[in-house]
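Protocol step 4 of 6: structure prediction from sequence.
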Amino acid sequence: MRAAGGRAKPARGVDLDRPQDFTRVDRDDMLGRVERFPADLQGALDACQRQAPGFRKGGRYVSSVLVAGMGGSAIAGMIAGGALRSTLPVPMEVVQDYTLPAHARRETLVFVSSYSGGTEETLSMLEDALERGCRVVGTTSGGALKERLAEEGLPCFDLPAGVQPRAALPHLVAPVLEALERTELAVTRRAAAEAVRVCEALAAECARGRPERSNPAKRAARAMAEGTPFIYGSGVLRAPATRWRTQLNENAKVLAREDFLPDSNHNDINAWPFDPRAKGCCVVLLRDPKGSRRVDQRAGLTRKFAEEGGAAAVVEVRARGEGALARALSATLIGDFASVYLALLRGVDPTPVEVIARLKRELARRT
């Protein structure tokens, strides 16, 4: 049955402790894809080491790194760049636009990423990179991007087809890590191996069969069902905070907002005790056990002021692992699980993205 405007009516929500009922809402098993995140990450890391054998440093100096992509491709670059920020010898920036920044030049490594290979902004940035003479490497499952890279004789990391782009994050982040390793800008393989181990343990803890009382993702989903999620991250958890928002938008079909500590303590914090709309919000604090002590104190005070303002719920999510990459990906994975569990609570199929598809159709008519 469909509601006015062509939108599917939400089904009745399900009990999160009755996984046998999940397929009634999650018809394409998005949850199963999230549960396979660690295996997909390991497979992608292995595949990348075998692919694009000609892509190496080759004596060419790299002055900066740009990751050109949208959606999951952009998040992959943000996660990698955030995790490696303290060790990368050159600036790394994610570009979500039609053109590259003015500083892009021959010495710039441009990582052009589009899961589908048809993302118009990414294709435009590829042409811009070619005109500027940048060093280019790509990753895609096919489409126009694959064709253009082949025409130009440029290296490409191949992605498996048939995955929802937002569910392809393990496949999108692995090529970025491998590219940085091969250009000798970062040592990533040991960190990636730890991230796989941490995510394996966490996936078991968040799996559908784990009861809500001991499942951090189900508990987070329950809290977010109480109000509009406001997600706060800092340091290596900035990109995961953004990923939480976008997964909540696409999977759970809810509005959400992310903000960052410590900056939000210079503006956002002032509103919590005064705005009556705080009562319709759920605060999600992504906590990094190895992050700044001062930021950790600020997170505690942010919780205090949100609670004083009457926030509907406050939930804290702690990252796991020793290395920055493991902590970033573990916080990301909990959010991916939570977004699907919130969809199940709301009776919303997490896979379709009808409004995005409609936007693309309408844009196509205006070219």
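Step 5 (inspection) to follow. The chain has two domains: 4-27+208-346, 37-187.
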